[in-house]
């Protein structure tokens, strides 16, 4: 890969161990014996991940990360620390300067997994920061590869969401944000194991708790990539419910951002009418019947009617299908 990972530690034997550990991973590994030695490397290399010891003479790890916030803002920062230094590590995480911390002595498998995940995060952030439509759509398609049952899902959700937005006569900027948010609404699933995503039945409570974290993970990625607030809101809130029983924040009614409510309707309709690991696709008749039954509990009633009306106008539903027929204010 063209990007590099950098290890910074004042102890030579630790640097040697780290370089040896990552020698077979295919990553380009750099090393520095101090924070001062590390700084010039960012001018000569594209560094995706920097793993730094905190307790170093001269400039500590957290001080290095503070300086990198301006010069290498997208580099993913991992702090190595001892148990005695845990409070300062947690403080650095809370200030947003550190993505993960690793306690010495580290577990080799765990450290490799954390660094690989961090490289993926860097590439995702770098991709989103370009705000190029083809690139963002390509990222959404890459995410879908984790779950073969959702192939094409993000594109279809965007189509349905834009139908609703057209019915509401929203601005061109809003349409663009809804398109991007629809493509990226499930980007947090990067952090959900495929074994959970592709499980052929109801998942256990613990696994579902992992799945429920994907909106927060995804919104954090979108936020750090400096995407529009509306895009971040879609990613964060597309699993809220109109009655307040959704996640991650339990928002209800119009407290849920409009764009997120729109994408939620589109997301549910596509999920109902496509095949899933745990069931066959419903017919459009059954899908619409279930969608209408969710008005006022899971979904915004007016937006469900918008989608039904839009599908009728495009001859994707017969005119005598239930729902819709509301006036556009």
From TrEMBL:
One Pfam family named in its UniProt record: HD_5
Domain of life: Bacteria
GO aspect biological process, one term: phosphorelay signal transduction system
Location of 4-aspartylphosphate modifications: 53
Domain HD-GYP, residue spans: 128-323
Family annotation (SUPFAM superfamilies): CheY-like, HD-domain/PDEase-like
InterPro entries listed in its UniProt record: CheY-like_superfamily, Cyclic_di-GMP/3'3'-cGAMP_PDE, HD/PDEase_dom, HD_GYP_dom, HDIG_dom, Sig_transdc_resp-reg_receiver
Record-given protein name: Histidine kinase
Keyword annotations from UniProtKB, A to Z: Kinase, Phosphoprotein, Transferase
Domain Response regulatory: 4-119
Species of origin: Geobacter soli
Organism classification: Bacteria, Pseudomonadati, Thermodesulfobacteriota, Desulfuromonadia, Geobacterales
One Gene Ontology molecular-function label: kinase activity
